[in-house]
Amino acid sequence: MNVSEFYDDTSPEIWKRIIGEDLHYHVGWGEGDILFNAIQYLYQFIDQGSSVLDCGCGWGGTGKVLRRDLDCDVTGITISKVQSDYIEQNKLFDVANADLHDFIPQKKYDVILFVESFCHLKNPDIVLNNLRNTSNKIVLREYYMKNDIQPERYIDSWLMNIYNKDMIVSMFDGYNLTHEKEHYVDALEPTLKLWLNNLSKLDKSLKTKHIDILELSARYLKQKKEQILKDIGLSTFVFEKC
Length: 242
What we know:
The chain is of the alpha/beta class. The chain has a single domain (about 5-240), classed as 3-Layer(aba) Sandwich (Rossmann fold). The protein contains eleven helices and seven strands. A seven-stranded mixed beta sheet has the order 3-2-1-4-5-7-6. α9 (about 185-200) packs across α10. It starts with a helix and ends with a strand.
């Protein structure tokens, strides 16, 4: 199974029962709408009316609220046909169904955004080279390894590549790291609680392979929470051109 197949096997309507109407498929924290909070944190790095290229935009949850709250001009890129069709049908923003490894932007953007999507890139150097002259600012929310012990079966199940923090920073040659904030310690427990609660209400007949992996992973992360937090981090990184 490749990344496009992984995200195409479940309808948005089923996902709404698990992650909510806005389809924020990432971790969250705080009070109230914890998944929205994780996106709202990024607002401090995105000016009102900015043009934003959302790389790995999912079903459009992030772009939708950026348009609503900051009047951003959003372009989304997703390898999933189901996701791009959903965005187009609901007229959320401009979207391209494309592999980022092959995508060459035709204009410049104020901000390039990756929200827990960078880890799905097979060759991030190719993607960053494609994007290098596209924007002076890249905002990245991503997982990183705190040591050399990778949970390989877990990572393989999610078609992920996770790097240590120094390696991530080194990939953004020509950019300065201007902000970095760790979130996982605050986000893991409330996100697992939300996912598992909603998954418990979902009829078994609706559980696709992707949802089965999410449920198994959530149980694993809950059981191994202390060790996971020692081994893996999740930060917001902001990179700006030198």
